Amino acid sequence: xxxxxxxxxxDASDITVKGLDIVKKCKRVYLEAYTSILTVGKEALxxxxxxxxxxxxxxxxxxxxxxxxxxxxxxxxxxxxxxxPLGATTHTDLILRAKEKGIEFRVVHNASIMxxxxxxxxxxxxxxxxxxxxxxxxxxKPESFFDKIQKNRxxxxxTLCLLDIKVKEQSIxxxxxxxxxxxxxxxxxxxxxxxxxxxxxRNRKASGDTPSSDTAITEDTLCVGLSRVGAESQQIVTAxxxxxxxxxxxxxxxxxxxxxxxxxxxxxxxxLYASSTKVKDILQSLQPTK
Length: 290
Known about the structure:
Family: Belongs to the diphthine synthase family.
Structural class: alpha/beta
Radius of gyration: 21 Å
Largest sheet: 5 strands, parallel
CATH topology of the largest domain: Methyltransferase, Cobalt-precorrin-4 Transmethylase, Domain 2
Low-confidence stretches: none
Protein name: diphthine methyl ester synthase
GO biological process, one term: methylation
Mean pLDDT: 89
Catalytic activity: 2-[(3S)-amino-3-carboxypropyl]-L-histidyl-[translation elongation factor 2] + 4 S-adenosyl-L-methionine = diphthine methyl ester-[translation elongation factor 2] + 4 S-adenosyl-L-homocysteine + 3 H(+)
EC number: 2.1.1.314
Helix content: 25-40%
């Protein structure tokens, strides 16, 4: 049997009882190590589970799935994923490959940022399409994420922005020379995400492509920064986009939310995390008059 097991968002103890029971009986236990991270390392997992944990990087999962699925028809193999196992398309692909090989599989779900983002107080059923914000380079600055955020705002929906992670990435030079030399891991912060959004705002303004509606994204648009959701050190801050460029939320992982239309209770919740008097005043102005 091939098991895909969610680890949740905090530390080693966030695994479900069902998931832990399965891990303890499996022949091999892999940890997916590139779409997300826990606040603890592999060693902490091994100590808590009482098992050796094998790190599975992107290359192994995407190009060497045969090794991962080897003997799953005879033995129990566990594949551990931070958050929920089906939060990334790569893991859906693993299920399809297992199915092609006639291998049985089971999924053990857990909390992910897709539902834990409710901690900021914005109601989950008011979210539109989730977007990913990637690291820009000097020659590649895609803006499609911005259009999706704007589309959500135009329909009064909130937007969860998942921020880029670069793990075991190669430089262009090393890639071209075929050298297995990898860059240090990088995790996008809410500051970098806000800066990229504001650069798009400035680009659109310069080209005259700016919506005139109340939903248009500006420097004063409210956003919510979240870091290490599910961990003891979790932080939440409500700020304007401009303010968010200088907010310190500490280490990874970060997420950013751009609110749409808000219910009075949602406004009250965001007020709890307001970064400044200006933000409190903006939120107060959004409350319906009595």
